[in-house]
Design goal:
The structure holds two protein chains of two kinds. Chain A is mainly alpha-helical. Chain A has helices spanning 2-19, 27-72. Chain A starts with a helix and ends with a helix. Classes of the chains: A mainly alpha, B mainly alpha.
C-alpha cells in the first residue's frame, strides 16, 4: 500500500513541472485517465500472450498424440 | 523482423512520442486546464474504436458473402478490441466530464448513443461466447456486426442533430478549422497514429490467437477431448 502511494506521488510529481499551474486540482483525473488506459492495454496484451502460450503448448500435445496414432497404424 | 514485432515496435515508439508531446509539448488549455489533456487519449480511443467496428462490419459482409473463416476471425478480433477501446473511451470520458461539466455522466445524445454502441458490440461478444461454435453463430454475429455499425455515424452526428454537451468536432466532415491550436493539432495527430498502430498490433495478435483457438477446438474434436 505504502509502495503504491509512493509510486502515485512520484508520478504526480513528475507530471507537475510539465503541466504548469492551471487546473492543478484536476491532476488526479488526468493521471487516472492515462493510468487506467495503460493498465487495461497491458493487461489485455498479457492475457493474449499468456493464452497464446497455453494454446501453443496444447497444440504440441495434441500433435504428439496424432503422431503416436499415425505410428501405431 | 516479423510484421507483428515491427508493429509492436512502431506502436511503442509512437506511444512514447505521443506521451512526451501530451505532457511536454502541447499547451495547457486556458478554460479546461490540465484535464483537457485527457482529450489526447479519449478522442483517439473513440476514433480507433469506430475503426475497429468498421473492420467488424466490412469483414462480416465479407464472411456472409464469401464464407471465409479468415474474415470471421478478423471480425471477431476487431469486435473484442473495439469493445476494449470503447470501454476505455467511456471511462476516460467520465474522468474528463467530472472536471469539465461537474458530473460523471450525462444522458446527452452523444454519450447515450456511445453507450448503445458499446452494448451492441458487447452483445456481439456474448453471442460468440455463448452460442455453440459453428457457422450459425458466426452468421448471426456477422449480421449483428453489420447492424451495430449503423450506430457509428449516429454517434458522430449526434452533437449536430441534437443538443449536446460535447464541444465542436476536431476531425471529419464536421470539424472546424479553429477548433485546435497547431501544437494541439500535431499532438492529436501523433496520438491518433499511436493508437492506430497499437490497434494494428493488437489485431495481428488477437487474430493469431483466434486461429489457434479454432485449431485446438478442431484437434480436441478429433481426439475426443484427449
Amino acid at each position: 500500500m505504502a509502495k503504491r502511494n509512493g509510486l502515485l506521488a512520484a508520478a504526480l510529481l513528475l507530471l507537475l513541472p510539465a503541466l504548469g499551474a492551471e487546473g492543478e486540482e484536476f491532476l488526479p483525473f488526468l493521471f487516472a485517465a492515462f493510468a487506467i488506459t495503460w493498465v487495461a492495454f497491458f493487461a489485455y496484451a498479457f492475457f493474449i500472450a499468456r493464452k497464446q502460450a497455453d494454446l501453443k503448448q496444447e497444440i504440441e500435445v495434441l500433435r504428439s498424440l496424432q503422431d503416436k496414432d499415425d505410428d501405431s497404424e | 523482423m516479423t510484421l507483428r514485432m515491427s508493429l509492436l515496435g512502431l506502436s511503442a515508439a509512437l506511444m512514447l512520442t505521443a506521451l512526451a508531446m501530451v505532457f511536454f509539448y502541447a499547451p495547457t488549455d486556458i478554460v479546461l486546464g490540465v484535464s483537457q489533456r485527457i482529450f489526447y487519449v479519449h478522442v483517439p480511443l473513440a476514433l480507433v474504436g469506430f475503426l475497429a467496428f468498421a473492420v467488424v462490419a466490412v469483414c462480416s459482409i465479407g464472411y456472409l458473402w464469401k464464407g471465409s473463416e479468415r474474415m470471421d476471425n478478423v471480425a471477431y478480433a476487431a469486435a473484442e478490441i473495439g469493445v476494449l477501446f470503447t470501454s476505455l473511451m467511456l471511462i476516460t470520458g467520465m474522468l474528463w466530464a467530472k472536471p469539465a461539466w461537474g458530473v460523471w455522466w450525462s444522458w446527452s445524445p452523444q454519450l447515450t448513443t456511445s453507450l448503445i454502441l458499446w452494448f451492441l458490440y458487447a452483445a456481439y461478444l456474448m453471442l460468440r461466447a455463448y452460442a455453440p461454435p459453428g457457422e450459425t453463430a458466426a452468421r448471426y454475429a456477422a449480421v449483428l456486426g453489420i447492424i451495430g455499425f449503423i450506430d457509428v455515424p449516429i454517434v458522430y452526428m449526434a452533437a449536430r442533430w441534437w443538443r449536446d454537451l460535447h464541444p465542436n468536432k476536431v476531425l471529419g466532415p464536421l470539424a472546424e478549422e479553429s477548433a485546435l491550436e497547431p501544437p494541439m493539432q500535431l499532438t492529436f495527430l501523433v496520438s491518433i497514429l499511436a493508437f492506430t498502430a497499437l490497434f494494428a498490433w493488437l489485431m495481428t495478435e488477437r487474430t493469431e490467437l483466434r486461429r489457434q483457438e479454432i485449431q485446438v477446438e478442431r484437434m480436441r474434436y478429433i481426439y475426443g477431448e484427449a
